[in-house]
């Protein structure tokens, strides 16, 4: 059962990682990277195709009050979206980012990374009922690329249900947020307290792992920001 149907979790945002077919990662590659970068993450479920390529994965971190679902997507629809997205962003990015847009434009494969917050204050939130989310004391592990959200824009995207890329929403988001930049603490709403329980460390780490393994490009589709 997907976390979209699990009332212990609330969907927050979705990110994309675009890559070429020649660099599609194996499940074992992602598992190995997760062990090196973040031994305190727990892989709750995973799925591969016949050749061992990653198709789906669910990762949780109770200490971060967060979980991720990763879904592999491919096909003409993805390539069509990629081209439309690249065309939409081309006039608004730097010269260096245009090279990454060119890669996105050529891609017919991507990972959709759905970010969930583990809820508290409800009768279903009871750690004794969730043994798969128990962890030992967190080890100190350097997280390379921890600053990739330094230019994240504030958005009002916060609705339940699966995420679908909407180019019209992207255009509206960018027009409403021109000139507004914040650090990651602002982006997750710590001032209001709405998201203060959730720690973005797992999201940042997994995006960086997937981007490096696939030699791909990570993107926030709600704001159109290419993540470095």
Write a structural description.
This protein has 228 residues and is an alpha+beta fold. The relative contact order is 0.25. A seven-stranded antiparallel beta sheet has the order 2-3-4-5-1-6-7. The protein is built from six helices and seven strands, in the order E-H-E-E-E-H-H-E-H-H-H-E-E. Helix 2 packs antiparallel against helix 3 (95-106). It has one domain. It is globular and about 40 Å long.
Stretches where pLDDT is under 50 for at least 5 consecutive residues are 121-161, 178-195
Number of strands: 7
The string of secondary-structure elements, in order, is EHEEEHHEHHHEE
- On the 0 to 100 scale, the average pLDDT is 75
Brief account:
The chain has 228 residues and is an alpha+beta fold. It is built from 6 helices and 7 strands.
């Amino acid at each position: 059962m997907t976390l979209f149907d699990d009332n212990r979790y609330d969907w927050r945002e979705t990110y994309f990682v675009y890559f070429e077919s020649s660099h599609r990662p194996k499940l074992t590659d992602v598992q190995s990277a997760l062990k090196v970068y973040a031994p305190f993450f727990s892989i709750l479920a995973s799925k591969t195709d016949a050749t061992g390529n990653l198709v789906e994965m669910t990762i949780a971190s109770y200490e971060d009050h967060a979980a991720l679902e990763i879904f592999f997507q491919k096909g003409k629809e993805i390539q069509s979206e990629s081209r439309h997205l690249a065309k939409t962003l081309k006039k608004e990015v730097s010269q260096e980012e245009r090279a990454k847009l060119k890669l996105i434009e050529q891609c017919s494969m991507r990972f959709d990374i759905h970010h969930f917050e583990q809820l508290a204050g409800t009768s279903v939130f009871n750690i004794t009922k969730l043994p798969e989310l128990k962890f030992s004391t967190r080890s100190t592990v350097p997280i390379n690329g921890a600053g990739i959200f330094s230019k994240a824009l504030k958005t009002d995207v916060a609705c339940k249900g699966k995420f679908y890329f909407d180019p019209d929403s992207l255009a509206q988001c960018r027009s409403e947020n021109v000139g507004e930049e914040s650090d990651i603490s602002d982006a997750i709403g710590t001032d209001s307290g709405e998201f203060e329980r959730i720690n973005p460390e797992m999201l940042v780490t997994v995006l960086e792992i997937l981007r490096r393994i696939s030699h791909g490009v990570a993107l926030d589709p709600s704001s159109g920001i290419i993540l470095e």
